[in-house]
Amino acid sequence: MNLNGQMITPVADVIKENRRPFIFATGYGAVGVPDGYRDQPTLQKPFTIEKLAEMIDEVLKGSVA
Fold first, then answer.
1. Structural domain range at position 54
2. Which of 19, 50, 54, 63 is deepest in the core (most CB within 10 A)?
3. Average pLDDT, stretch 12-32?
4. How many CA atoms lie within 13 A of 26 on its CB side?
5. Quick check: 58 and 50 in contact, CB under 8 A?
6. pTM (2 decimals)?
7. Mean pLDDT confidence for 19-36
8. Cis peptide leading into 46, omega within 30 of 0?
9. Radius of gyration over alpha carbons of the chain, in Å?
10. Residues 33, 1: contact at Cβ < 8 Å?
11. What does the pLDDT average to over 25-35?
12. pLDDT of residue 54
């Protein structure tokens, strides 16, 4: 859960505190998501654009925890 070696949790903290939906996209899969974020939707890389679109729709409708 990093970008170029930097952990993304500070950014995720701000998004979560502001109650905005977000999706993790990671090559680590759900097991790589930090403990405090395991309730967030996660896409395993590689993924298709169709799967991303489906996940975005679900998150915006509030049907994915």
1. 2-61
2. 54
3. 89
4. 21
5. no
6. 0.76
7. 87
8. yes
9. 12
10. yes
11. 84
12. 96
